[in-house]
Amino acid sequence: MTHESNAALIRRYVEEVWNEGRLDLALDQLTPDHVRHDPMLDNDVIGVEAVIEQIKSLRLALPDLHFEIQIYPAADGEHVTRRWMMSGTHMGEWMGVPPTGLKITNTGMAVSRIESGKIAEEWIQRDEVGLRRQIGA
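RE: above sequence
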């Protein structure tokens, strides 16, 4: 895959699946055995259906969820890094915290490994302390 096609895949994934909530498109963009490493969770998120459930949960908590991203393809042609800013209004229970109605923003980075034109693995890092402070967790 080229740098451009990998970057386009990540851009579509974030825009279509995360921002627009078109969860069925994750089936075309993620490998069936996709692994999402997220230190905020107790366990890795494994498989497309598990990722879809994670997205549903986040979109219930933040119905106006939106990610702004900047993409940095790696020279190896296999990895893509994205820096992101997430925003949304805390309207549903999240991280054990009842809805606050507060507008939140959070920044982070993700590294994605591309395999055969799909996202096979992701490593997520975010400002967890800042996020928890914003919702009172």
